[in-house]
């Protein structure tokens, strides 16, 4: 029987595209859900995110029992987890977009504005850019070198370099992916990254941390 995957719907994700990409990568049962009971039965969890850190954090926490169910499965049971874009940023201790907002605190660090030291550098960071794996990082085997599609104005400043799985360059280094234990987060959008993104999702679907 195919594993049940919970694609979290909290009103802040590109759900249709992510759902289609997961299916194209080989996923069987993908439940688009905000139901804590379904999350508790999931064998893999995907948390997308589009918009501001503050809005996404508040939206996620506003659903009764959802954060507790996520922590039970991801932190307690160790099921494979993938955060996408702001879904990755929510792993942080806090975000500094529209004030200071607490994140999930699963990976220490904070989400800060991309600093533009050169007027040639555009913010938001939008379009195709390189993804450079960090060979000694946690979960680095999931990330391959290549190019992916980014769209963000804030970046995850990670406290422990061992949690940085990949970097990209946009007027300086920016974290492209984080990983710890059974958790993977990517700043780029695999659902918009064509073959590169589908390859990442396929590896996630086979991942046994």
How would you characterize this protein structure?
The protein is of the alpha/beta class and 209 residues long. It has one domain (4-206): Rossmann fold (3-Layer(aba) Sandwich), CATH 3.40.50. 25% of the residues lie in helices and 32% in strands. The chain contains six helices and 13 strands. It has helices at 15-24, 36-41, 53-61, 66-76, 86-89, 194-206, and strands at 4-8, 29-33, 44-47, 81-84, 94-95, 101-102, 109-113, 125-133, 146-152, 154-158, 164-169, 173-180, 183-186. The strands form two sheets. Strands 2-1-3-4-13-12-11-8-9 form a nine-stranded mixed beta sheet. It has a four-stranded mixed beta sheet with strand order 6-5-7-10, with helices on one face. Helix 1 (15-24) links the parallel strand 1 and strand 2 (29-33). The protein is globular and about 50 Å long. The two termini are 20 Å apart. The mean pLDDT is 92. The active site is at 85 (nucleophile), 189, 191. Pathway: Amino-acid biosynthesis; L-histidine biosynthesis; L-histidine from 5-phospho-alpha-D-ribose 1-diphosphate: step 5/9. One of its GO terms (molecular function) is glutaminase activity. It comes from Tsuneonella litorea. Pfam families: GATase (PF00117).
Q: Which descriptors apply to this entry?
A:
9-stranded mixed sheet, 13 strands, Rossmann fold, single chain, alpha/beta, 209 residues
The proportion of residues in beta strands is 25-35%
Low-confidence stretches: none
The portion of residues assigned to helices is 25-40%
Instruction: Write down the CATH class.
Output: Alpha Beta
Give the N-terminus to C-terminus distance in angstroms.
Answer: 20 Å
Biggest sheet, strands in spatial order?
2-1-3-4-13-12-11-8-9
CATH H-level homologous superfamily name: Class I glutamine amidotransferase (GATase) domain
For the residues shown, what is the average pLDDT?
Answer: 92
Determine the number of helices (DSSP H or I, runs of at least 4 residues). 6
Total domains: 1
Secondary-structure element pattern, one letter each? EHEHEHHEHEEEEEEEEEH
Largest sheet: 9 strands, mixed
Secondary-structure-derived class: alpha/beta
Q: In CATH terms, what is the fold-level topology?
A: Rossmann fold
Radius of gyration: 16 Å
By CATH, the architecture is named 3-Layer(aba) Sandwich
What's the number of extended β-strand segments?
13
Shape: globular
């Amino acid at each position: 029987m195919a594993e049940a995957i919970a694609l979290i719907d909290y009103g802040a994700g590109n759900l249709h595209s992510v759902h289609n990409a997961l299916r194209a990568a080989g996923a069987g049962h993908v439940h688009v859900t905000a139901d804590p009971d379904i999350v508790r039965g999931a064998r893999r969890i995907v948390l997308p995110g589009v918009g501001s850190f503050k809005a996404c954090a508040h939206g996620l926490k506003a659903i009764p029992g959802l954060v507790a169910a996520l922590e039970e499965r991801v932190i307690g049971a160790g099921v494979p987890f993938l955060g996408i874009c702001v879904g990755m940023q929510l792993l942080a201790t806090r975000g500094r977009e529209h004030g200071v907002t607490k994140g999930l605190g699963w990976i220490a660090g904070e989400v800060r504005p991309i600093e533009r030291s050169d007027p040639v550098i555009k913010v938001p960071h939008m379009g195709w850019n390189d993804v450079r794996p960090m060979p000694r990082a946690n979960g680095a085997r999931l990330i391959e070198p290549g190019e992916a599609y980014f769209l963000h104005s804030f970046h995850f400043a990670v406290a422990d370099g061992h949690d940085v799985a990949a970097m990209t360059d946009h007027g300086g280094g920016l974290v492209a992916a984080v990983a710890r234990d059974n958790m993977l987060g990517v700043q780029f959008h695999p659902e918009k990254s064509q073959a590169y993104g589908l390859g990442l999702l396929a590896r996630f679907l086979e991942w046994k941390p």
